[in-house]
Amino acid sequence: MQKNYAESARRYMDAVAAIVASMPRRPAYYIETFGCQQNEADSERLAGMTEAMGFVRAADPDGASLIIYNTCAVREHAEKKALSLIGEAKHRKAANPDVLIGVCGCMTAQPHRMEEIKRHYPYVDFLFGTKAPERYPEILYNALTSNKRTFYPDDYDGVDVPAEDLPVKREMTWKAWLPIMYGCNNFCAYCIVPYVRGRERSRQPEAIIAEARELVETGCKDITLLGQNVNSYEYGFASLLRELDKIPGDYVIRFMTSHPKDATRELIDTIAESEHIAHHFHLPMQAGSNAILKAMNRRYTREQYLSLVDYMREKMPDIAISSDIIVGFPGETEEDFEDTLDAVRHAQFDFIYSFIYSPRVGTPAAKLEDTTPHEVKTERFARLLEVQNAISRAKNQRLVGQRLRLLVEGPSKTNPEVFSGRSFHAKLVHFTGGDESLTGKYAWVEITGADVYTLTGKFVGV
Ligand code: SAH
Ligand code: SF4
Ligand code: F3S
Q1: Are 108 and 133 in contact (CB under 8 A)?
Q2: Which of 397, 423, 441 is the last residue of a domain?
């Protein structure tokens, strides 16, 4: 039976708002987000609901009466980082026993982690997973009105697609995450995501198009469609892109992530023919050896993967292609790894995210025998970076002397004189000669220098 959490969410939001209204001053909240853009999008929804209940945003956790940690579980490092920050909350609670501490997200969607936090982190007041953010007002209500700690494992059923019309508080006005689907059905052998995010659920195209239209009308210039595998969007991803592309305005549409087994030539043609869809394709390859791809349950071969890359470049010579690669999957031999290097050389990625394999509790790969010493894995990792860095640098250097149109993201963190922006092809550029008024707007920049990760340039005009 479909439970109507959206309706109960509204009732609980009203109830919390009434409690907050009776407080001497509006309490502040702080959300710490780990992991991918999907988690950032979830945090924006949590923030939207929290503000609708009367809380104000705190600049840092020190001043907050409500702190939420939205966690990630994709690799051990992500979990360690989250656990160590959650550990710091102990001192916050000791200094102020009234502060409410919540933990949610992919890490706590795993029963063993929920149990661990229950036992070893007694100052955490409430815990929930990922599957139904609209339960959050109820959870917060219970945390505020009882002295008991509350735990909401992701075992409730009947929840389909999250409710449409709950408030969202976006981080930026000119750049937005737009989830089009949730969950993953692929069960790649190494990956925890299908276990912590549940089965695929797609939003209705009308709801997505309406949200995108509203974003563009209110000045948003960069929309990233989100899903673990946008290509298996239930109502057709290529046709969704075609509909979105019809929205009039000066903006860019991006998407993440695409699974190569479902990336079609129709999709590539759609992008090539579109006006607004960025010429950037993030297409995780994971490995370049057919034996490893099979063991990973990726369901494509290196030949199929590389022929997709070739097709993209044939259709859009200016396209930027990026990828994710895992080094040291159980059983990866030197020969398998050489195949990965060879595929990387063939594909000529603009950039990659590479990771050393991290076993995840409950995944099939965690049960495989893994005899490769860690030093061998780190050495392979370094060799992969060396090959890719040379490619990235050479590709970036080809842009020196050209003019690129950027969406300006603001002053750089290290030098207020330098501004950062991103091109249609997702290239990050640091440039001089700009000013604060450019943030969130388009600017033309001449590229004057290039290295592995970034381009440098000077402002030419708007
Ligand atoms: N849905 C996306 C990826 C989500 S996770 C996709 O299918 O492409 C992001 C990246 O983390 C993956 O592409 C993979 O390269 C990496 N990753 C996932 N699980 C991992 C693990 N157990 N160890 C190391 N890297 C992992
Ligand atoms: Fe994980 Fe594979 Fe799903 Fe991506 S497609 S989230 S790597 S299981
Ligand atoms: Fe991490 Fe969950 Fe994203 S595991 S990478 S936050 S889907």
Answers
A1: no
A2: 397
Closest alpha carbon to 29 in 7, 3, 77, 62: 62
| d(C-alpha 420, C-alpha 431), whole Å | 6
Is residue 49 domain-shared with residue 145, that is, in the same domain?
A: yes
- Residue stretches of the chain with pLDDT short of 50: 1-2
Q: Is 82 in the pocket of ligand 3 (CB under 6 A)?
A: no
For ligand 1, what atom is nearest to the CA of residue 363? 22
SS (H, E, C) 242-263: HHHHCCCCCCEEEEECCCHHHC
Nearest ligand 2 atom to the CA of 185 is 3
Closest CA to 348 of 381, 375, 309: 309
**Structural domain range at position 431:** 403-461
pTM of the model as a whole:
0.96
Cβ proximity of 12 and 141 under 8 Å? yes
Q: At 64, which amino acid appears?
A: A
Note whether 67 and 131 are same-domain residues.
Answer: yes
Give the span between the Cα atoms of 165 and 153, in whole angstroms: 24
Residue to probe by mutation, ligand 1, list 326, 361, 368, 378, most atoms within 8 Å of CB: 326
Enumerate long-range contacts of 19-26, CB under 8 Å, 24 or more apart: 19/141, 19/144, 19/145, 20/53, 20/54, 20/55, 21/54, 26/54, 26/55, 26/56
Q: Are residues 276 and 194 part of one domain?
A: yes
**Which ligand is nearest to the Cα of residue 130, counting in written order?**
3
CATH number at residue 428: 2.40.50.140
Residue of minimum CA distance from atom 10 in ligand 1: 324
Q: What is the pLDDT at residue 2?
A: 45
Give the count of beta carbons closer than 10 Å to the beta carbon of residue 93.
19
Report the pocket of ligand 2 as residue ranges, CB < 6 Å: 184, 186-188, 191, 193-194, 228-229, 259
Which domain CATH number covers 49?
A: 3.40.50.12160
pLDDT in tens, 60-92: 999 899 999 999 999 999 999 999 999 999 999
Question: Which pLDDT belongs to residue 416?
Answer: 87
Assess whether 443 and 337 both reside in one domain. Answer: no
* Distance from residue 191's CA to the centre of ligand 1 (Å): 6
Where residue 258 sits, what CATH number does that domain have?
3.80.30.20
Cα 12 → chain centroid: 28
Residue 195 lies in a domain: yes
For residues 252 and 128, membership in a common domain is answered with: no
